[in-house]
Amino acid sequence: MLSQKTKYALKALLYLAEQDVNHISKTVEIAEAASIPKKFLEQILLDLKRGHFVGSKQGKFGGYYLLKSKNDITLADIHRLFDGAIALLPCASLNFYERCSDCVDESECLLRHGLITIREETLKAMQGITIASLVKK
Amino acid sequence: MLSQKTKYALKALLYLAEQDVNHISKTVEIAEAASIPKKFLEQILLDLKRGHFVGSKQGKFGGYYLLKSKNDITLADIHRLFDGAIALLPCASLNFYERCSDCVDESECLLRHGLITIREETLKAMQGITIASLVKK
DNA sequence: TTAAACCCTACTAGTTTTATAGAATTAATT
DNA sequence: AATTAATTCTATAAAACTAGTAGGGTTTAA
């Protein structure tokens, strides 16, 4: 399941994607439009900025805007930024790989094989969902 | 990500699937073979029993055994039993549906549409992984 | 009757999640 | 230069969840 943070991040990105190009959105504006607690959204937007998904302008009349194209921001990206691995266990993860402490021989782990299959399929599905594809529907 | 409980449940089921038919496995036996804390495993096996995946025999020389066929226990089943919904948000879930409190018109929620697609694809993938398919590989 | 197993409920320590608070920094306007 | 309005940063806190422990109770075979 997605965390609230990931859900809010996606809603915020959807809001930004729906604005005119060159429009800059204030945090409070996004917060109200998408029903997100303002101070919580601040942190989320900062994380999105550090992830290079959005850009910001500081000071008066500042705000946020999409940095990447709507087509290049996928559900997989945002999931990884806020909720981490797509895989169901760290040992089956590409980006968040970690060995199981209790695992004697990873290459012979019955569970891992299946989880790698699942990861490949869900990753593909999640990479198919972009901010653009969501806005379009 | 899977919780430890789900991971342990799968490992326990894999162990049971590898035993001879008619063999009955004690908790302590499974716990040692699969490196699972015994008292924790007790709870997990009880949950699996309540979910009708395993059966038990009480008293001396009792233990656990697979109730369903290896082919009929899927990753989706076990995920749902211990970790709940397959979907990424409750509003996109089949078995754990819940409305978003902040959602005005669900049918027009941009996010939900994409999440339903994802759920359909991951569910299909997770239903394709069975205890039998894991043991076989 | 005893031993060995499952069954059941409660509890706890630690972690994670979901925020909130408040001050610092930046930039445009007056 | 002062003011205002915005982002940026760090710390804190309450609630929920996770992973595991504890301690019995119940059942069955010998």
SSE order and pairing:
The structure is a homodimer of 137-residue chains.
Chain A: H1 4-18, H2 27-34, H3 38-50, E1 54-57, E2 63-66, H4 75-83, H5 110-128, H6 131-136
Antiparallel strand pairs in A: 1-2
Chain A binds a DNA duplex (30 and 30 nucleotides) through residues 3-5, 26-28, 37, 39-40, 42-43, 45-46, 49, 56-64.
Summarize the structure.
Chains A, B: InterPro entries: Tscrpt_reg_Rrf2, WH-like_DNA-bd_sf, WH_DNA-bd_sf. Two copies of one chain form a homodimer. By secondary structure, chain A is mainly alpha-helical.
Radius of gyration of chain A: 18 Å
Unreliable stretches of chain A, pLDDT < 50, 5 or more residues? none
Known CATH architecture of the largest domain in chain A: Orthogonal Bundle
Number of strands of chain A: 2
Beta-strand content estimate of chain A: 5-15%
Number of helices of chain A: 6
Envelope shape of chain A: elongated
Domain tally of chain A: 2
Helix content of chain A: 40-55%
Pair of chains with the largest interface and how many residues each contributes: A-B, 31 and 31 residues
Give the SSE string of chain A: HHHEEHHH
